Each structure stands twice: as structure tokens, then as C-alpha cells.
Task: structure prediction
Amino acid sequence: MALVPLPLEKLLRQLGRLPGLGPRSAQRVALSLLQRPEKLGELQKSLAEVAAQLAICGRCGNLAFNHNAPPLCEVCSDTSRDSSVLCVVEGVADLWALERSGVFDGGYHVLGGVVSALSGVGPEDVRIPQLVRRVKDEGVSEVILALGASVDGQTTGHIILERLAGLGVNVTSLAKGMPVGAAVDYMDEGTLSLALQGRQKVA
Ligand SMILES: [Zn+2]
Result:
């Protein structure tokens, strides 16, 4: 007799691969959902809605509504923002953190990850070529690197610097003083706005 029924085993495997959820947390989540079948139905509906209605912004990599064709996010659609300044972030959560700080009114470029030799993630996997193309095509005058202070975040910054060299664009980085290893989305709004205002030229 199999202890875990087959359909549940499949769900556990999928949940266990999510960030922050190991096998034991996956088990806890799944069992709690099964005890409240109405919750399972609600979750199913939300997941289907997200899949149907949301897409990745074709320009910056932020989340966008699917009904725009091609998908364009709120930031990219807002013509009052300064599109000559691009802030490069690792993920959408970082973009949200910067927007909450309320001090930035330029555009974003969401990499969707950082380069990591250990995990086999190369520059082409994280939308760096798209960034270079935007800098060339969109009249960008400043690129702000707002990447985490982790080794991978810093490596990614160096690669971007190399790729943008010779394109005549100013490259700045969030002010030093960020806690070592800090992720942008974990910084409070005050720290983040200070880091942004005190950004330093790196190229
Ligand atoms: Zn966008």
C-alpha cells in the first residue's frame, strides 16, 4: 500500500520545487489545503486567473496584463515617467520595493534572476542582451544597478558593466552601505530611497 496517494505525491513534488518550500513545508501546505476543500477550489481559481490574465511585459520584464498586446506593464505604459533612466533589478519583488520607496520615476529592467556559475545561469538567461538592446534603441542616458549585495548580484553587475561599455551610457550603482548579502526586496523603504538617492557612478 502506498502511504501517499499518487495524485498527492505529484502535487508534493511540484510544491516542493517552489522557492522557500522544501519537502516538509510542501507536505504541510498540501495537507492543510486538503482539510479545507473550499480553499483548494479558491486556490485553483486564482492560479487559473493568474495564468490567463498575467504575462511578462515585453519591454521591461515586469508583470503585465495579458489583454495588452504585446503585454506592456503599468510602468512602461506611464508616459509621465522618465524613460531615459533605467533601474536594473533582479526580480519583480525588487521593483515593487523601489516603487514603494516612491523616489524613482524612471523605467525598470527586470532581469528575472542573476548570473550564477554555480547554478549554471548565464548572462543570456537573465535578459542582459535585452537590456543592451534597450540602451541602444531607447535613448537611455543612465542605467542604475539595483542588484543585491550577494556574490551573484555583484557578478551580474560586473557583466552588465562590460556589456554596456562603449555605449555612452552612465552606469550607477546603489550607494554602498547596503548590508552585505542584502536583497533589494528585503530593504526597508527608507534605506532603499537613501541608497537610490546616494547612488554612485561606476562607469
Ligand atoms: Zn514594462
Remarks:
- Residues 57, 59-60, 62, 72-73, 75-76 surround zinc ion (CB under 6 Å).
- Strands lie at 54-56, 63-65, 82-89, 106-110, 142-145, 170-173, 200-201.
- The chain has a mean pLDDT of 90.
- The longest strand covers residues 82-89.
